[in-house]
Protein backbone atom coordinates (compact mmCIF):
# COMPACT_ATOMS: atom_id res chain seq x y z
CA UNK A 1 0.00 0.00 0.00
CA UNK A 2 2.73 2.46 0.98
CA UNK A 3 4.82 1.60 -2.09
CA UNK A 4 1.81 2.01 -4.38
CA UNK A 5 0.96 5.47 -2.96
CA UNK A 6 4.63 6.42 -3.17
CA UNK A 7 4.72 5.46 -6.86
CA UNK A 8 1.59 7.52 -7.52
CA UNK A 9 3.13 10.55 -5.80
CA UNK A 10 6.36 10.10 -7.77
CA UNK A 11 4.42 9.83 -11.02
CA UNK A 12 2.50 12.99 -10.13
CA UNK A 13 5.74 14.84 -9.33
CA UNK A 14 7.18 13.77 -12.68
CA UNK A 15 4.01 14.95 -14.41
CA UNK A 16 4.19 18.35 -12.71
CA UNK A 17 7.90 18.62 -13.53
CA UNK A 18 7.24 17.79 -17.18
CA UNK A 19 4.37 20.30 -17.37
CA UNK A 20 6.45 23.08 -15.78
CA UNK A 21 9.41 22.18 -18.05
CA UNK A 22 7.19 22.42 -21.16
CA UNK A 23 5.71 25.71 -19.90
CA UNK A 24 9.18 27.18 -19.32
CA UNK A 25 10.29 25.82 -22.69
CA UNK A 26 7.42 27.60 -24.44
CA UNK A 27 8.24 30.85 -22.62
CA UNK A 28 11.91 30.42 -23.54
CA UNK A 29 11.01 29.80 -27.21
CA UNK A 30 8.84 32.93 -27.17
CA UNK A 31 11.66 35.06 -25.70
CA UNK A 32 14.17 33.54 -28.16
CA UNK A 33 11.77 34.33 -31.03
CA UNK A 34 11.54 37.96 -29.86
CA UNK A 35 15.33 38.24 -29.56
CA UNK A 36 15.71 36.72 -33.03
CA UNK A 37 13.30 39.27 -34.53
CA UNK A 38 15.04 42.11 -32.69
CA UNK A 39 18.39 41.02 -34.16
CA UNK A 40 16.90 40.63 -37.64
CA UNK A 41 15.35 44.11 -37.52
CA UNK A 42 18.71 45.63 -36.59
From TrEMBL:
It comes from the Bacteria. This is Uncharacterized protein.
Amino acid sequence: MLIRSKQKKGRRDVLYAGASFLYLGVLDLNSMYRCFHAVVRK
